[in-house]
Every structure is written in C-alpha cells, then in structure tokens.
Design a protein that fits this description.
By secondary structure, the chain is an alpha+beta fold. About 30% of the residues lie in helices and about 20% in strands. The protein has helices at about 5-10, 15-30, 40-85, 145-150, 275-284, and strands spanning about 125-130, 140, 155-160, 170-175, 195-200, 205-215, 235-245, 250-265. The protein is elongated, with a radius of gyration of 35 Å.
Amino acid sequence: MTPSPTAADQSGEAAPGGDADERRRTRRSRRPRRPRVTVIGVLGELLITAGVLVFLFIGWQLWWNDMVMAGQQSRAATQISQGWIQSHASTPPAPSPTATDPAAGPVGYGDPVVAAPPGEGNAFAVLYIPRYGADYHRAIAEGTGHDVLNSTRLGVGHYEGTQMPGEVGNFAVAAHRSAYGGGMHLINELQLGDAIYVQTADGYYTYRFRDLHYVKPTSVEVLAPVPNQPGTPPTDRIITLTSCNPLLSTAERIIAYGVFESWRPTSAGPPEGLAPIIAAQAQG
C-alpha cells in the first residue's frame, strides 16, 4: 500500500530533513569570510606601526629636548644675572629718587644707561617676562644666528643694527617659538600692560607690552627704529619681540611690541615686580 502523504507533503513544503540542510547552508553563506593573510598585508601593517612609533618618538624627542634646553638656558641666565649683582655688592646703594614737585611723584634715576653693542654671540642682557612664568629668564646675545638661537646657554638674539636696552629707538630681539628651548613659546599670550624686564650689567629696564600682530617673514620694517615706519626719526624707546608662527612652522612671524617705562641701576636693586624672581633664582 502506498503511504498516504503527510501534511507537509500535501502543502508542497520540503521534508524536515531537507529543511535543516537548507538552514545549515544559509548559515554558512552568511558567515563573514576571513580575509587571506598575505605577505604584503603583514608588511603594510608593520610599516604603519613603525611609522606611528617613529612619529611618537620624534614628538617625544622634540618635547624632551626642548624642556632640557630650556632648563640649561635658564641656569646659564641665572649665572649671568647673579654675576652682575654680585659685582655690585660692594657698591653703595643708589639713592632713592626724589621729586622736586611732591605732587609729581618720583622723577626716577635719570636717563637710562645705554651700553655699546657687544661682539657677535656675546651675552649682554637677561630677559624676564613674568607672563611666561616666574621661572622664565633667558640670556640675550648679539646676533640671531644658530650660534645664538640654538645655543644651550643663550636662546634669545639681538638683531644687529637695532637699538640697545634703554636707547631711543627699537631694541629688537628674536627667539624660537617651539624648539631649542622655546624662548618665545608663549608670546601669543601676552596681555596689555604685561611687564617685560631686561637686565644688563648696568641695571634693570622695564617695558610694558602694548601690541601684537602677524607679518610675513620678509617684513623687516618691524625692526625699524620706529616699527613699520622706516626712515622716521624715533622719539620713543621700544622693545620688539619676534618669533615664528604658528607653532612648528616658519610661515609667518608673530611680533610683540613694548614701550619703555623706567630703569634702575643695579645698585638700586631690581624693580618691585622683578625682585621676587631675582631672589628666587639666587636661592635656586
């Protein structure tokens, strides 16, 4: 006798066994295929990994070397500063300035002493900018070549032909922004009225920050006795700080200007705002 058809046979569906096989085939077809491991693929991944490691190493080296050089430059500047102070230790203190008119306030110590420009590569001043941090101080040397800007003892260079500290005209200096100690790393953070101190063997010169702008590397007119006005006779005492911009680039220059406020001879001691920094470096 021929078996009677099941309900599944009657409905035209596959038998249970065939349905299970079909499901297994469907699951296998849905599984993602593993990519083949090839020599080229492995080599590519190794090269990418090596590139990332090299990039990280270079970044670490730049950061570490920058920090090490900054410390070396600060220590060298401290030695120069303290040497000048100690050489005047036996000098009688300069008398406090008085005014002929009590309502006018102190008249100061007269016109600032202006030294002659030193030889190329010779340090003649120490720069202090409290906005950069209480521990910031760098030696300023004559010239802006690699022997000055890349030096472990210097770091800030004076543009030859520009004026000296306290002189009528433009005392212009340069430093790296983010390498070799980063002497001007925070130049973009200066704020109106920030103190800029310059110490020499003769005394302390105080400038106040006034303006900040950006120029092309070829814009040398910022170094003129009257910045941006070549040929104009100067009447003011200006300081100009220059550095590269943006960070890790030489595409343009960032320029900060300050105006002269006062000066004090070394024997009179540092100005009030600088005194704690000088005292701290003497103890350090």
